[in-house]
Predict the 3D structure of the following.
Amino acid sequence: MEDAPKPRRVPSSFQDSGGIKDPKTELRRDEEMHRFDSETSLETKAVCSQSKLKGLELTTPLVPSISVASTFSINKVDEYMECLRDGYIYSRLANHSCDSAAHAINSLEGGVGTLVFSSGMGAIATTLLALLKTGDHVIAPDSAYSGTYAMMKSVLPNYGIEVTFVKACDIEEYKKAIKPNTKIFYGETPCNPCLAVLDLKAFADVAKTVPLAISVVDSTFGSPCVQRPLEFGVDISINSCTKYIGGHSDIVAGSMSTRDEEILFGVGEFLRQTGNCLSPFDAFLLLRGVRTLPLRMEKHSQNGLKIAQYLEQHSKISKVYYPGLPSHPQHEVAKKQMSAFGGMVVFEVADGLQAAKTLVESVKLITLAVSLGSTESLIEHPATMTHGPYLMTSEDRQKGSISDGLIRFSVGIENVDDLIRDLEQALAKV
């Protein structure tokens, strides 16, 4: 009698004629050029991490070149599988530009591997669809990135996948929502847009109580220079690299890092089959963004704290949400798992909708625009923009604590006194 098949965390849809592929033999392995030791800092890894170029033993370009080829020549038919695993044959499957960016991000995240995608939503959608099947159950926060919320509410149910929304970052709510078919515990931290902070270790521990369940955290608002979910036991860390990791408002990209080889292999196969790959040109820019990420996050965090402190004392502001403020409900959790508090500041204008609109339309230096995490400061009104009627109903926003007076401010790396003066003149018009 044959042994029963070993339970799998990834749906067994990635098969060849010999059965399930083995991640330990099929995964691509990139070798780091430098000899980092256990004391090497994240700042140094961000600047220096580089995978060895295949076939260049004597000399290597300091900056990896853009791999524009769509296909690659091979020497022998019998070497095809070896090239597929260890080299390159077709750019949808792999190319050095994307591998270089993924390798550098993974050096910061501390996983067994990282995949890069054509957008942050590409990373989220590909990861979820690769890991879920009909009949599975997802637990997700009621306050989240609007694209994620829309996918959870409108797309996953079409595939027979059940989703339960809970209060963002409330561990007890996650526990209460567990079902026998729960497969994904999904979280964000800090949460979009209200900056609730998820206790990463507690979240990972809850997921581990459910056999074969997988914990996923969108870490975009922190970036791997501020927080590393994998270090706290989370299975998957996702970033919209359009934001802080790219950092210059000139690319759209996403990443998925994991500490589990089976997950890396399964999501990687799904990525290649669905073609949700990153452009080599964008991968080149993404790697450049990684190099300066530590410096930028330090300045974003310094400016963010000063802006939050200024707003908290202003008479026209009723509430400020910033993990670095002692008034934040999860300030102690944030101190435990974040090395800095980032550049996202969210606040409530006391007089509500019209006052909030007046404020965001009156700034002169700060730019009214969606997105976040770039060198320049961006401001927006979630109730009418990123979390507005296009993606969320008023009831959805109410459940997620997204009020009409809420403002989301992505604080850039400009001189902070200039930013405060701009806010001061805009608030004078409210």
